[in-house]
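**User:** Hello, beginner here. Are you able to go through the protein record under this note? It all follows right here:
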Amino acid sequence: MILGEELLRRVFPGLEEDQYQPAGIDLKLRRVFRLRGEAGLLRGDEKRLPEYREVEPEGGEYRLDPGEPYVLELAPKLEIPEDTVALFFPRSTLIRSGVAVHTAVGDPGFRGHIRVLAVNHHREPYRLARGERVVQAVFIKAKGAGTYSGDYGEG
């Protein structure tokens, strides 16, 4: 069962009015990071992320250069209920503008800021304002699910 707006308002109180959607909540751009240096590694139990460098906004806007990978940190900090899974989808304006947003599943019990990967596939830089709605989170009840115990939550 997908959680609808009425229930989402109870589970996630205090969001700005424009963040509540009929079948999800919109997450807003908080910070932007550019991937730099050596590529990451995933091999067995060995996991190494590439270096991230925070991008400073210019006049409240971030510039996403063509073909460059960026990590977008979203707000608010989420606390996904322990009986619920979150799926993240890019807002259609980004897709229609040539900006791909790659996401992962939000496991039951995850707490923290969601980070997604964005790549501008247009020939020109894309401008993205801090606080813009960039991803919609859809929440689904998960029967018999375990809870998140990974490296990326904020406990």
Q: What stands out?
A: Residues 5-11 form the longest helix (7 residues). The chain has one domain: 5-37+61-141. Residues 62 and 149 are 32 Å apart (CA to CA).
